[in-house]
Design brief:
Number of strands: 8
Shape: globular
Order of helices and strands: HHEEEEHEEEE
Number of helices: 3
Radius of gyration: 16 Å
Helix content: 10-25%
Largest sheet: 6 strands, antiparallel
Distance between the termini: 28 Å
Length: 156
């Protein structure tokens, strides 16, 4: 494997370092106790521990009570994909979201929320990602998210 390909295959940050970018790089309003569980080649698994403050006020039609609010779910997906880019590329990058598309598949029930994010394609400046969200204990996804990020680097 060439040196360039070896660099691409190895994440730039460990799980602990990737988790610290959430606190270090994002504003306090975006911190919800997320836990980076795994960092892989262009991928990241992030957990959002359940908090009743994340639930919407209205009961959902599934008959099981309240579910996560849509904005909370979208924000968590954005955080997962941002953190995935940071883990893959390192702390010297500035990922800025260009677009986000989310398809809600099933309600997100009152349990931890899991995000599995991955980089689909690395471009020159634009990087394309997807994220599957699921409720803890469920094999079925509750949402599918795609996004594009513009990535630049800090001046050295």
């Amino acid at each position: 494997m060439s040196e360039r390909n070896a660099d691409i295959a190895t994440p730039a940050l460990t799980a602990a370092e990737a988790q610290s970018t959430i606190v270090d790089k994002l504003p306090p309003v975006d911190h919800h106790g997320e836990i980076v569980e795994e960092v892989g080649h262009d991928s990241l698994r992030l957990r959002l521990p359940f908090n009743s403050d994340f639930l919407g006020a209205e009961p959902w039609q599934h008959g099981k009570g309240a579910v996560f609010s849509g904005p909370t779910v979208m924000g968590f997906a954005d955080t997962a994909m941002y953190c995935c880019l940071m883990a893959a590329l390192g702390k010297s990058v500035i990922p800025v979201i260009v677009n986000l598309n989310i398809s809600f598949i099933t309600p997100v029930v009152d349990t931890d929320l899991i995000a599995n994010a991955r980089i689909i394609r690395r471009g020159g400046r634009l990087h394309y990602l997807e994220c599957w969200l699921s409720s803890e204990g469920s094999d079925e996804p509750c949402a599918h998210v795609t996004s594009t990020y513009r990535v630049s680097r800090y001046a050295e």
